[in-house]
Helix-turn-helix domain-containing protein (Mucilaginibacter ximonensis), 302 residues
Amino acid sequence: MINKTSLNEFYEEISRPLPTGAAKEIGHFNVFVTESLFDKRSGAREMPYSRRAYYKISWIRGKSRAEYADKTIDIPEAALLFATPKIPYNWIPETGNQTGMFCIFTADFLAQGKSGVDLDVLPIFQPGQVPVFQLNPDEVKEIEYIFKKMHREIASDYRFKYDLLRNLVLELIHYGQKLQPVANVETAHNASERISSLFMELLERQFPVESQHQRLNLRTAKDYADRLAVHVNHLNKVLKEVTGNTTTQIIANRIIQEAKILLKQTNWNIAEISYTLGFDDIAHFSNFFKKQTSVAPVAFRG
């Protein structure tokens, strides 16, 4: 299996017991003060590059950076970071004076009650997003207030505290969604943008690859065009206009991105990786990988 940090492993990393009891019925939720988890000797604590098995919202204060498969985002002062189990990332503090807070929760935590929420339909957790938002001093005060309220409530004996905590998580999510560029909403009516968005959603739905028995169902431009009920030439034209790349290039880039993750983060052999990514034989995969990256899969794995 691909390297994934489970809730148990997370609590082992921070040397704290996994809470039990009511959490089994409501899904998991917890909130932490960042500096309380740091190694006091080194003054910093790096989260390993992996896919988490839970959602996470972090209020980060201090110079650091967030690393994704092919992107690095510098955080000079303060930021709000949203993490989903679908996308692996790494947070690296660059100074010893890191402060802030973060909460972790499972999808079933927000799915509780009459107003249950499906996290996968929320814009902040949509594929293709890099939800790291720089915060100005006024925004920091607002975010700090929400997190401190969470911290007080989790320790309280209030009977309905998890209902309140659920609302506070949603408040953070909506806060982040309001920080997203307005252009994403303004162009939604455009047919080309809509087709492009649906294509990207279909593409990302196939990832992450988490088992040697999983296999990509959609591999070619025609596969996606058929699923979207458009002609392959029209899909290619739309994507070229919107992204600057052809359908085949976009698919290839995403497969390469996943291939790099599997090569570095799993002990699967090349044949297994080749199969999961939709290739019928190792030679085809190796030629494809080398054409896209200029190195063979074995050499990339090191």
Observations:
- Residues 74 and 156 are 36 Å apart (CA to CA).
- Strands lie at 4-5, 29-33, 51-52, 55-61, 64-67, 72-75, 78-83, 90-93, 99-105, 132-134.
